[in-house]
Amino acid sequence: LQECKIQNSSREYCKIFAAEARAVPDFGAVPEIIPLYLIYRPANNIPYATMEEDLGGPCEQYCVTERDGSLVTRGTSEIVLKCCAFQHWVYQWTNGNILVTDMEGVGWKMTNVRIATNLKGYQGLKESCFPSLLEQFAAAHQCNRYCSLLGLKMLEPAKPKGSKSPSMGRKSAQSSPQLQK
């Protein structure tokens, strides 16, 4: 259930990111986080399972959290750079409270996403979820051309503030990272 909530919430952020990226000339293709469904199988020994579309090939890791807790990007391909821009966008949009930490997939379709947050109770998490990754990301992120195309600000480690939820909608155009130049 937790995996579904995290992946599907990240998917909602990604949809908003994609809409903003499509409005930017020369941005090109945008990553898509595929939905993860929870299914109930009452006659099975394990009554709950997750299901998602078949991506048609072996998954590549684009952005991962290593065992030592560090964030690592795998390469400098267009997909990897856009995943990093998406991470920056989510971090900025949520005022440093949420970060999509892991993304892997086939081509532009992403799965197995994870998050780091310092928001207690986010998506049912009872405690913080890797809040040190938020600080590490702000200190280590190297903006790339896609961050620039979106008009994202250079990151500086800061104290987290309130967060906006994509399901609540925007109150004004100023809530978009793209417009906060």
TrEMBL record:
Top-level taxon of the source organism: Eukaryota
Keyword Heme: no
Record keywords, A-Z: Disulfide bond, Immunoglobulin domain, Kinase, Serine/threonine-protein kinase, Transferase
Gene Ontology biological-process entries: cardiac muscle cell development
Domain called Alpha-type protein kinase: residue spans: 1-155
Pfam entry (one): Alpha_kinase
Composition bias, Polar residues: 172-181
Region annotation Disordered: where it falls in the sequence: 158-181
Any one GO MF annotation of this record: ATP binding
Gene3D superfamilies xrefs: MHCK/EF2 kinase
Cellular-component GO terms for this entry: nucleus
Transmembrane segments: none
Protein name: Alpha-protein kinase 3
